[in-house]
Fold each of these.
Amino acid sequence: MQIDDGKVVLFHYYLREHGGELIEQTHGDDPVAYLHGHNNIPIGVEKGLSGKTAGDKFTITVPPEEAYGVPIKNSVQRVPLKHLQCHGKPKVGNIAQVTTEQGPRQVVITKVGKFNADVDFNHPLAGKTLEFEIEVVNVREASADELQHSHAHGTGGHAH
Ligand code: ZN
């Protein structure tokens, strides 16, 4: 089955900065599951996966515009500490999560005060050209529920 809109795709990947070190990978863990055509993953990765089938292995290079965006100016905002989710105490340089009207965003903490923190809304990988080494594990039809929710359920997807 070929990857196309409305298919649920499971894949493993190695992610590197172009010509650089390994940033993250899924091998040894569950593969990632996403619903094709629903903006679940960066557009450049989705384009690379389009038309592929289970068992395909390939490497794609994705420019910032099709990955995590180009860094925006004035991306630092002050948020109440209680709206910041992070592991342990908030520290400068650490990544935290802030829930926005557009959903959860990963931010980098740039300053910590008593009640507020300054956070940078640029994704840590913004501005970087990325290399994804991908292995397609499985391709299947999405269920009616998944299409309605615009994301994949089950292993590697949303658990609810
Ligand atoms: Zn759902």
Note: The CA atoms of residues 47 and 82 lie 38 Å apart.
Amino acid sequence: MKIFKTRDYNDMSRTAANIVSAQVILFPKSVLGLATGDTPIGMYNQLAKKCDQGDVDFCAIKTVNLDEYVGLAREHEQSYYYFMWTHLFNKINIKRENVFLPNGQANDLEKECSDYEAIIERMGGIDLQVLGIGCNGHIGFNEPSSAFTKNTHVVNLTESTISANSRFFDKKEDVPKRAVSMGIGTIMQARRILLLCSGKQKSEILYQSLYADIDPIIPASILQLHPNVTVVADQDALSAIV
Ligand code: GLP
């Protein structure tokens, strides 16, 4: 595991964007696994800038997103579909047909989950998976549990995640209670993982994820078993470690 310690959020975002850019430049047909949340927004801004300057070309890149809320329309401002188009896809030269997110409005969610796994498999798997981390250690929407979930599945969000994400909604009751998320197995099959983390409020969970026992109660702790993880975190997030 490589850990890059950065000064602050901006520095984290630039470093992460450089790593993603290197992947795209060296392997222009890569499959990128993408994440939502506040953490990767700065990195997406940097990537958009690099694309605009002609330094990075996304025309042959494919993307798969980690997760999506159940029941939100794509046009809903808090859907992850809307998030990704707003923060990245509308700003880069990616092809619409190369972008994939789970459909949280599918009538048959079980089928949606198995179809999503099949899409990833058909693409040949994920070359580089970007991850943030929830305050309870979730990755994607894989919540603390007694077992690691393997494939894309429907998740009942925990109270702590609903509270954490209520900052994006008018009121807490508006936060969807369920989501479709890649499983831990799906994430672990990615050839490379890039974990981003910023801020003091994440320092304890980052420490536990990287150094405590591997336990599904801290879903991100499974990353210790992945052969190619790069952590890019600012000094606040790393303050419990170094
Ligand atoms: C959300 C997403 C995760 C994200 C996490 C942290 O619930 N499903 O993919 O990593 O929360 O979000 P933030 O970066 O805003 O702290």
Note: The mean pLDDT is 97.
